[in-house]
Amino acid sequence: MPRFAHMSDIHVGAFRQPELRSLLLEAFEAAIDRCIAEKVEFVVMAGDIFDSNIPDLSAVSRAAGKMKEAADSGVRFYAIYGSHDFSPNFSSIVDVLDGAGLFTRAERREDSGGPLRLKFVVDPAGPKLCGVSGKKLSIDRDDYARLDREALEAEQGFKIFVFHGGIEELKPGSLEMMEAMPAASLPSGFAYYAGGHVHSRSISSLPGRENIAFPGPLFATDYSELASLAHGEERGFYLVDFDGERVTDVEFVPIKVCEVVEIRCSAGGKAAQQVNRELRDAAEGAQVEGKVVLLTVEGELGAGRTSDIDLSAVRGILLRSSPLSVLTNASKLTSRELRTAPASPEPVHAVELDLFRREITRVNTKEARLKGESGVTLAMDLLTAMKEEKRENESRAEFEDRKAAAGLKILGLGDK
């Protein structure tokens, strides 16, 4: 029985850490290898293949190489833009790969300003595909408002609609604030609706619209998604069997490229020294070799400041055990002392100071002057220098040179 694969939200190029970028590509490669082994007819990629419209080209090269390997074995690829790999003003890497014949755009439009008509792309195995790409700021809503659904619904055969956006009736509780469209925006009568954008796996049916599927990402794109992996959530893609008229089976294929573990510490009501001790003890006893490690601290300190929490030292302990990567997160760590401190006569200054004190805990450096209160003071001095306004009769070049010189001096890199 013929089958196809459905993937979405791969986000090639996401993460700034090279080791995490590599893991994301490993997940993509593992998924494509499975598609080759399963002898799928084609792969539908429902947007956000890349994390930006012009991503890191070394990552693109590696992903394209794996797709070429699959194409050489007879696998065909169909894709649409997602909100990340779409640009209203510039060509996308999706256009480049489409032009190179590596995959086919599933969205073929006839748009003269009136009703939006979509042309079907017919796969050699028989299925007919069409779709609407996702766009930033939800400007794809106008496309759905103008969509000529009647013509799409009248088309006979096994049809797949590819889209990138949430469906209001199917939103998971964790994404209740996400913008979504009503299911009625989708044309009815298709055999399968290949969705993307929602980073949560689901497959559902509504009246007139069966098999509305969201496979979710293959790996992760940020800290919170890595934390979900640490707590047992599976990531992967769908394999879909069909008989030429209808879908006969949908199988979720999990993809796992590494272990993710989270060391979580609640600071609620504790002194900073106690939190540091608990973190060090947890790090010393953790089995982290070859794993991605998340170090999470949250809650309100009973005594001490957020800058007293030495995440850099704990990270150093973990790195001795050869993890793949260590990420820290103290975004939900607060301090009773800061909360109860008297209001500053300079509100903006107070907000900036509090922000730097919270974020300084995430700085990974061996230089003492860039950590703790000395690092906060340095950041505040730099911010003050950068706020300097252009003087009367001062040229732009002179203004920029003066600000650069002031910044270098504060950092100890310029003239005293």
Task: Please characterize this protein's 3D structure.
The protein has helices spanning 18-37, 57-72, 93-99, 141-146, 149-154, 223-230, 272-285, 311-319, 336-340, 347-359, 372-386, 396-410, and strands at 3-7, 42-45, 76-79, 104-105, 108-110, 117-119, 121-122, 128-132, 159-164, 166-167, 180-181, 192-196, 202-206, 209-214, 236-242, 247-254, 260-266, 292-301, 325-335. It has 416 residues and is α/β, with parallel strands linked by helices. The strands form five sheets. The protein has a six-stranded mixed sheet with strand order 4-3-2-1-15-16, covered by helices on one side. Strands 7-8-9-12-14-13 form a six-stranded mixed sheet, with no helix packed on it. Strands 17-18-19 form a three-stranded parallel sheet. A hairpin with a 2-residue loop joins strand 13 (202-206) and strand 14 (209-214). Helix 10 crosses helix 11.
